[in-house]
Amino acid sequence: MKKIIILLITLTVATKLCSQAIFIGPTIHYNFGSEKRYFSYGIEASVWVNDQIDVMFSNPFPPYGFDLGYEWSKGEKYIYSEFQIGVPEIGTSHGIVMQWTNETPKKFGYQGSVWCAFFVGADARIRIFKDEKIFAPGIFAKVPVCYNNKPFFW
What range defines the domain where residue 75 resides? Predict the structure, then answer.
């Protein structure tokens, strides 16, 4: 519960930092690459600084932003944040990930993904730690919370 509250506070602060769009939603991934295969579930929020209209008319940079996510599976937990770049339908993300279990200490690594989506999408994610590599294709859905610094639903 604390992590969801931290995620919502981060979203509120990000809205005040001139973001163009904020999306939040659930994720599910099938993880393999180590000795075990498993599903993981999570919640992710993404904040975009500029949008497609900016690119077409005045901004030379493609849309970019960052995401923040919390993911869990049987015994394992992850927190990650990535820089994102792309257009609304396709893009790539790169950042850091922290993994831990109740029995093992926290470890940090790299996480990267490519995705194709609008409100519902698919991604291919890789996590690289010092002692393992995990490939995790997945699906997700994201609902806009804010667009052009205005709440989306009211």
Answer: 2-151
